[in-house]
Amino acid sequence: MTAHPAGLAHPHDLVGIGIGPFNLSLAALADGIQGPTPLATAFFDQSPAFHWHPGLLIDGATLQVPFLADLVTLADPASPWSFLNHLKAADRLYPFYFAERFHIQRAEYDAYCRWVSEQLPGLHFGHQVDAIRWNGERDLFEVDFTQLDPDGEVEALGRAYTRHIALGIGTEPYVPDPLRPLVDAPAVPVVHSADYLDQRDRLLAAGHITVIGSGQSGAEVFLDLLRARPAGAERIHWLTRTEAFAPMEYSKLGLEQFTPDYTRYFHALPENARDDLLPNQWQLHKGIGPETIAAIHDELYRRTLHGGWPDALLTPGVQIRTAGRVGTTQLELHVEHRRQATRTRLTTNAVVLATGYRERSPDRLLAGLEPFMSRDDSGRPRVDAHHRLVLDPSVSGSAYVQNAERHTHGVGAPDLGLAAWRSATILNHLMGQLTGTEPYTLPPRTAFTTFGFSGQDRTPVVPAPRILVPLIEVR
Q1: Which long-range contacts (CB under 8 A, 24 or more apart) does 444-447 make?
Q2: For 232-262, what is each residue's pLDDT tens digit?
Q3: CA separation for the pair 388, 408 (Å, rounded)
Q4: How many Cα atoms sit within 13 Å of 390 on the Cβ side?
């Protein structure tokens, strides 16, 4: 591939960096925009092909959102890139109809996204984006990339020019500090759940296994290991910092916090209010699906039918203080129970870190834009209501972000159910700048809940003044 087939004469309208589900949604909805001149787009990803969390495509594991939360349906149900059209193309509509599944398997979602990625034009895998700059003389972004061969070796260097960019560089596995030095231990497996399936046989061969983390991934890994170990000799310990192995919030009104209405409400809050709110919403995205909790309990109960208890311990409310190797085949975890204010040591032969993901920092890619960027009091990029970075007015192009704006848009930022709406919001704003049109009609209201006061009758709460009362010494 060349940097741009027509050079500077015909720059792209939009270049996407990263091709995960969110930028794939953006590309699919951009493909559906009708007009005399098609939207000129290109999307780059350093991976050789699309894969979505391959290490966690455990047999039977399902998405935590309905199949309607595909790449396009909630913005454009008639799109040819919908999940239902994927089923039609594979002659699987009737089997899906009779299966009566609202929540599809993760492996099926991955297959659907790969189907889209293999047919959608303008996607360039094996292209690593190295830098992004603003060229003020031409009013264009310059996107430098390296083209890689199937082995990841450099084939060519290139540059694309574009009026607007969209960052969808995703997240990366989080490893707690005490365990970071042990991840590469050759003899003792310490693996993140992102690599679970690749390491599954090695883990099952270990004498004792410790799973750390009680979100959905931790629960699925624990259940899969439990089912694979013999009754009475499971030798699995499941640890978590949370106070309980708690269910995900799945009530219908609770789920309205994953609507555009809530996203707009959250974005309008002051920065300090947003920062205070986010940690208290952990059960919206860090809990366990009720079906998975039930399956774990059923499996544990089944193992008591002939007397005795399974050799599996589940301990919430604890944290790993330090960890180290013991000999060549064991690790020693120093564990603290916060409520009891007690400590103990746990010896294990393998550790699975179901400790979640963190937003991948865009700072390296955006170093060339740093002089133009606006940051909040915590040093994070400011992101406006259109999901674009707040840049200096001298930058006429827009830099949109996907799943990098939880601090400004709330817990729904990484949720697949808001992917199509966010992509349509971005494209409406982009097309408004290019042509003055909005190709996607989005609903003005999406929730029964009214998340805040609105209108002219709102009265700001003024904190009461502090009154200092002189102290009187009583004798």
Answers
A1: 445/261, 446/256, 446/259, 446/260, 446/261, 447/256, 447/259, 447/261, 447/262
A2: 999 999 999 999 999 998 899 999 999 999 9
A3: 11
A4: 11
